[in-house]
Specification:
Elements lengths: L1 H7 L2 H12 L2 E2 H8 L3 H13 L3 E7 L5 E7 L8 H9 L6 E2 L5 E2 L3
Antiparallel strand pairs: 1-3, 2-3, 4-5
């Protein structure tokens, strides 16, 4: 749960999930729709995929071009004090989780 929440803490990634919840899409079109660069979008998609929130499928277009389509993986978050307590019990170190989802030492 901590990894998923940290992944969703980024506004760009929230926008990606919202866009993909409407329909699956490929990187170039999604980047145009969201108004962000393809490299930045691909970095966010990798994090979302690592957290299990989106999945990718490679398809070949009619003109032979390989296109990677992304779609939302159905998920539900049940965020209650009890689920937070259960998640805290699974933490293995005192490292903090930064808003970008990366672990770091406490400041």
């Amino acid at each position: 749960m901590v990894h998923v929440l940290a992944t969703l803490a980024n506004p760009h990634r929230l926008r990606v999930v919202a866009a993909l919840s409407r329909r699956r899409n490929y990187v170039s079109q999604l980047a145009r729709e969201l108004g962000i660069s393809r490299p930045l979008l691909q970095a966010h998609l990798r994090k979302l995929e690592a957290a299990g929130l989106v999945s990718a499928h490679l398809e070949i277009s009619s003109d032979g071009k390989a296109m990677k389509f992304y779609e939302v993986t159905p998920f539900t978050l049940d965020l209650t004090p009890e689920t937070i307590a259960a998640a805290v019990a699974t933490l293995s170190s005192p490292d903090t989780v930064q808003p970008d989802g990366e672990k770091g030492s406490p400041s």
